[in-house]
Design a protein that fits this description.
360 residues, alpha/beta, Rossmann fold, seven-stranded parallel beta sheet, 14 helices, 38% helix
Length: 360
């Protein structure tokens, strides 16, 4: 099977959550005989932080502008079994127009469904959708489940929808020896986001002030100069994916803070949850609807509502944290791997009926 994807990025993990997810999914699909051709606009902020080039069994097509990509895209679509446009594709509207003419299954994957729906509710333009929304696609995948699936049908005209949640590649994210410069009683890995900042301050910055003898570590990109650092908070600027296992494995507990739109919508697990759990690291997270579909609170994951919960998590014994981490890892390996998502993806395609179309 051949799948052509027009996406945001797979070549650079800098400042986005798409790349790591795509890498794991492409590798898992390749193991099942699916060849992926991924079209990515060669944007300078990704080019300067490129950490991935070779797709297993597939091809990465970097292009400067859409006119440059069009001929190659048409050639690949001519023999593709399925073609997909994703959210935040820089040329999403143009790619959608092309994919709607494809002979194979026409797919859309919204990896940012709560943001898409929140922008529509606010009357904002969604750059990767045209006036027809999701009409004309045979199947729409959503990173978010629950009521978001109904909204994609009712508000954007999706004919058929299916959840395709986050996941992890356990060959990449696994327990590794701790490294001293990442060592933390509580860590947080994520790109800076203004809507996540209150949670970061509540669950990490304030606990750091209350626990001056404990060590806290933040890893990520785009943090502002006026971030409220403390003497016991260490900062690691942008960690490429190969460093994530060492970062998590060096933490007694790691923190997950959900974007506001995603927390409000629910059913939208961050890829960081699965990455950390696959490394056997206990996770403290804020609550959102559907969380208990992915992990059992108290047994496989810690849920926090305020600073006191974060302090209590840091104060847990090593034995209790080890039990939580082992349980979380077992759950991820059973239910939330890239291989499991690849199976779900292929099953959804098999269930989708290819409409009868007139020859061009």
């Amino acid at each position: 099977m051949k799948l052509v994807v027009f996406g945001l990025t797979i070549s650079s993990s800098w400042g986005n959550g798409h790349a790591t997810l795509w890498r794991g999914l492409v590798a898992a699909l390749a193991r099942r005989g699916v060849s992926v051709v991924f079209f990515e606009k060669d944007q300078h902020w990704y080019a300067g932080n490129r950490d991935y080039r070779d797709l297993p069994g597939g091809r990465l097509v970097l292009y400067g502008d859409w006119a440059e990509a069009l001929g190659t895209a048409r050639l690949h679509l001519a023999d593709a079994d399925a073609a997909m446009v994703t959210s935040y594709c820089p040329d999403g509207v143009a790619a959608t127009a092309l994919v709607r003419q494809a002979r194979g299954l026409r797919l859309f994957y919204d990896l940012d469904t709560p943001v898409t729906l929140a922008d529509l509710e606010a009357g904002k333009t969604v750059s990767y959708l045209d006036a027809d929304g999701l009409r004309g696609f045979d199947l729409v995948f959503s990173y978010t489940g629950g009521r978001a699936l109904d909204d994609l049908r009712d508000r954007l005209g999706a004919a058929a929808v299916a959840p395709l949640y986050g996941h992890v590649d356990p060959a990449v994210h696994r327990p590794v020896p701790a490294q001293e410069h990442y060592r933390a009683d509580l860590s947080y890995l994520g790109t800076y986001a203004a809507d996540r900042q209150p949670g970061v301050e509540r669950f990490l910055v304030e606990p750091a002030r209350r626990l001056p003898d404990r060590r806290f570590v933040i890893g990520g990109a785009q943090y502002p100069q006026d971030f409220p650092w403390a003497e016991n908070i260490w900062f690691v600027r942008h960690l490429p994916p190969p460093e994530h296992p060492a970062f998590f494995s060096s933490s007694r507990v790691t923190l997950n803070v959900t974007r506001a739109a995603m927390a409000a919508m629910g059913w939208c697990p961050s890829g960081r949850l699965f990455e950390a759990a696959a490394c056997g690291t206990p996770v403290l997270t804020d609550w959102w609807e559907g969380l208990d579909r992915f992990f059992t609170p108290g047994a496989e994951i810690l849920v926090g509502y305020g600073t006191e919960d974060a302090v209590a998590a840091v104060d847990l014994s090593d034995a209790e944290l080890r039990r939580l981490g082992e349980a979380a890892r077992a759950r991820v390996l059973a239910d939330h791997t890239a291989d499991r998502r690849a199976e779900e993806f292929i099953a959804a395609l098999s269930a989708a009926r290819l409409p009868q179309r007139r020859s061009a």
